[in-house]
């Protein structure tokens, strides 16, 4: 019988406590220690020791660690894990800058270590089902992806703005569900809450196949919304990732005797289907996939099961282009990504 993998956790904030909950009950994994840079012991599962430093955690002998601390610390901690020979599942975004993300990619790849990025929306049941249906050609040609992600300001976030914290979800999921890379982006940001970072962004992107992406993201709405709409030649899919519901609205095929309407070559309202899909917790699925990737070793994971560091780097590159476009007031062209085969 294979011995359980030994895992560690860095960070016991809101997301870190969720990781601790899942890790402590994950089959085939032992959570052997937790390090919290802020020194918070609350939230640690019963019996899991808090360790004074990352080095103590490495000395305990871990196969991998989950990095759930503030984004500004991702590079430092990730590089230390790579140096110590441990794999890592790093919360999104991968790093606070493109350069830092590149250093993390190089550190883990050069050592042949399994590493991934926690873009949890890829494991949302609604988006998983949408992607499978798009791959099967159910929508035909894709014309546009529209995402809306808004809600009240999260006081736990202090080191980044809404682009890096929230819009990175939409950037990653858009490339993933369509299989297309961003080639340009135009964006506008505002800061209305008195913080040094932006709290609202509206962005329009163009994907490699000519389709359009629109992202509206903010921390200024009193209600929470997480919606992805993909429109194509046969209708549109609407995924609500708060409820994990997926709905299909078909283009109608209704003949008319009204000459004025017959001349209008648009679309009409057709059937609506709400799919019944299994709804497992996305965070648990993410951990299961990463555990299996660590067991399989470098090159052994099934493509798409884990968000690779290079895919995480691409999301950081696109988010940097969003901020650059907003700062300069112009459209920013993106160079092709090095690796998109697993997107």
From TrEMBL:
Pfam families: GFO_IDH_MocA, GFO_IDH_MocA_C3. GO terms for molecular function: nucleotide binding. SUPFAM superfamilies: Glyceraldehyde-3-phosphate dehydrogenase-like, C-terminal domain (SSF55347), NAD(P)-binding Rossmann-fold domains (SSF51735). Residues 128-237 form the GFO/IDH/MocA-like oxidoreductase domain. InterPro entries: Gfo/Idh/MocA-like_OxRdtase_N (IPR000683), Gfo/Idh/MocA_Oxidoreductases (IPR051450), GFO_IDH_MocA-like_dom (IPR055170), NAD(P)-bd_dom_sf (IPR036291). Residues 6-119 form the Gfo/Idh/MocA-like oxidoreductase N-terminal domain. PANTHER family: BILIVERDIN REDUCTASE A. This is Predicted dehydrogenase. It comes from Actinomadura mexicana.
């Amino acid at each position: 019988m294979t011995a359980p993998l030994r895992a560690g956790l860095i960070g016991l904030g809101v997301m870190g406590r969720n990781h601790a909950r899942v890790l402590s009950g994950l089959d085939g994994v032992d959570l052997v220690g937790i390090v919290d840079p802020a020194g918070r012991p609350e939230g640690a599962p019963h019996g899991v020791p808090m360790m004074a430093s990352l080095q103590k955690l490495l000395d305990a002998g871990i196969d991998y660690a989950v990095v759930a601390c503030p984004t500004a610390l991702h590079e430092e901690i990730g590089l230390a894990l790579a140096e110590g020979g441990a794999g890592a599942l790093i919360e999104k975004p991968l790093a606070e800058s493109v350069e830092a993300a590149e250093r993390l990619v190089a550190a883990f790849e050069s050592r042949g270590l399994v590493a991934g990025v926690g873009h949890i929306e890829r494991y949302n049941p609604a988006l998983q089902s949408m992607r499978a249906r798009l791959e099967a050609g159910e929508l035909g040609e894709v014309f546009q992806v529209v995402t809306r992600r808004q809600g009240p300001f999260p006081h736990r976030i202090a080191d980044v703005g809404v682009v890096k914290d929230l819009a990175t979800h939409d950037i990653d999921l858009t490339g993933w569900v369509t299989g297309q890379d961003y080639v340009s982006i135009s964006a506008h940001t505002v800061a209305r809450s008195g913080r040094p970072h932006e709290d609202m962004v509206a962005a329009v992107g163009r994907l490699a196949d000519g389709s359009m992406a629109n992202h509206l993201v903010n921390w200024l709405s009193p209600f929470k919304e997480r919606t992805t709409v993909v429109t194509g030649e046969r209708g549109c899919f609407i995924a609500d990732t708060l409820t994990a519901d997926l709905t299909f609205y078909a283009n109608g095929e209704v003949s008319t005797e009204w000459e004025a309407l017959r001349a209008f070559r648009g679309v009409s309202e057709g059937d609506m289907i709400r799919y019944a899909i299994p709804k497992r917790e996305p965070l648990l699925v993410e951990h299961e996939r990463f555990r299996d990737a660590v067991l399989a070793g470098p090159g052994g994971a099934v493509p798409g099961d884990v968000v690779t560091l290079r895919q995480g780097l691409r999301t950081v590159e696109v988010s940097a282009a969003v901020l650059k476009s907003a700062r300069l007031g112009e459209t920013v062209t993106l160079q092709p990504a090095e690796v998109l085969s697993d997107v």
